[in-house]
From TrEMBL:
<dbReference type="GO" id="GO:0004180">
    <property type="term" value="F:carboxypeptidase activity"/>
</dbReference>
<dbReference type="InterPro" id="IPR039373">
    <property type="entry name" value="Peptidase_M28B"/>
</dbReference>
<dbReference type="InterPro" id="IPR007365">
    <property type="entry name" value="TFR-like_dimer_dom"/>
</dbReference>
<dbReference type="Pfam" id="PF04253">
    <property type="entry name" value="TFR_dimer"/>
</dbReference>
<protein>
    <recommendedName>
        <fullName>Transferrin receptor-like dimerisation domain-containing protein</fullName>
    </recommendedName>
</protein>
<dbReference type="InterPro" id="IPR036757">
    <property type="entry name" value="TFR-like_dimer_dom_sf"/>
</dbReference>
<feature type="domain" description="Transferrin receptor-like dimerisation">
    <location>
        <begin position="7"/>
        <end position="98"/>
    </location>
</feature>
Amino acid sequence: MITFYDSVLEARRINDQMMLVERSFLDRQGLPRRPDYNHVVVAPSSSDEYAANAFAGLTDALNGIESLSPEEQEDRWREFSQHLAAVTHFLGVAAKVLTLDLW
């Protein structure tokens, strides 16, 4: 039989896990060219501050890339690649939190 105490502990465990998942998406360095925004999964786009955008750092890096000079495009692709590596890392950490495979 599940007691009230057991259900409170289970709720606490789930809440702690949800907080860890959210924290795993925070990048202390912030998004590329926008260090004030730390969440790598959901953030406002640089072109629309009112709407949340999935993976805003990646979409912003690609936005308008075709109109840049070749040197600027190279820099932007490097920025995109570095941010993609960071996002991949944070997603991996979140997956470990969800599978309880942190330590």
